[in-house]
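Async update (no meeting this week)

Hi team, since we skipped the sync, here's where things stand on the single-chain job. The sequence we agreed to prioritize is pasted below, unchanged from the tracker. I ran it this morning and attached the output directly underneath so nobody has to dig for it. Comments welcome in thread, and please keep replies under the output.
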Amino acid sequence: MPPDTSVPNGIKKSIALGRYDEAALALGRLAKERPSVPILVALAAVNLQLGDLAAAREQALEAVATVPADHEARALLARIRAALDERENALADFRAVLDLAPPPAEDPGDTPVHFALHNLEQLTYLEQLHGLPPGTLLPMPAAQREETRRQFNDILDKAGSVTPRIKLSGDWGRALVQPPRMIRDDPAPERCLAPRNDSAQIAQAFHDSGGVACLDNLLSPTALAQLQRFCLESTVWRRSYRQGYLGAHPESGFVSPLLLQLAAELKAAMPELLAEHHLTYWWSFVCQHQRPGTDIHADQSDISLNFWITPDSANLTPESGGLEMWDVAAPPDWSFGDYNADGYRIRLHLSSIGARQRSYSYAENRALLFKGMLFHQTARLRFADGFENRRRNVTMLFRRSKGR
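Output:
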């Protein structure tokens, strides 16, 4: 019988509980005794969390050299290179990750309605934007598109807390489940951050408030416009969430020179908070106008950045639509699943200890910097109908680097 090359359950539990030093020691022993790609990938991922970026890169490179077509290993190597600010290599690896992705299924199967609706709207938008003949990206007649869009919206209007799924078929069904891959590729602007001289005040506000700072005008006008175009024109929204929003992650193409440069500029512009940290992960969420955003949770980070990019004109409730923050962090003995996916337990915990809540209203180009383990959720939202008006936010996670 061949030796077991998987990560033992005990080590997986240590990782889930955030006991990374413990997991690193155990994985390091296994990597010497019976090295395998799963063991090396797990060890590299743990070292990325610990901030030992040199060790993480070495282990990820070994995993990729062992099995060049391993999707998880190449994606992790790309993230580690982003953390090291090796931008060109990171972008090249992320392009390779897209090439290594498994092919789409022939049968679309059951699909979340909000996912299909978003893709219908985006493919129609892209055909119109680029002057393509109708049907180029979405093989569906105009009358059928409008009828299907109304049908999907009607289903969502009547849905409960979990969005329904629908059976799709044919060429147009496959296009709504696996849209043609299109990613807008622009060089980073000369400057991503808007000029500011208040980093010391932001750091002071962060510490005085227990770990939250709000800042407006995060991005330069050029960078904001470029990021808005990227989100509208790139078919990178590949993960659906049952509440009714979609996610774009670096493995599905949510990566660009702008995003990597932004991380480097943030560290340089806010040394009091971020100079000793590295970027570990990032994503974007897009909300359906009549569905809620993220439920209450905490992030797997030391410091999180969350900022909003949809124009203010789309927000129909200017006093809301942003983020709800609590002044309590996830208990140290909770697992990732406990603090990221168990809203009922979190609310019981917060109620029992008298946690205080603060609301931050939505604004285009507004950002929150906060301790990632503080509980938070998307505020009540209502945005105008239409693809361009959907609420879009970007989140970037930072960890303290080893030896800092």
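Quick observations from my side:
The chain has three domains: 9-100, 110-177, 199-400.
The two ends are 45 Å apart (CA to CA).
Reply here if anything looks off.
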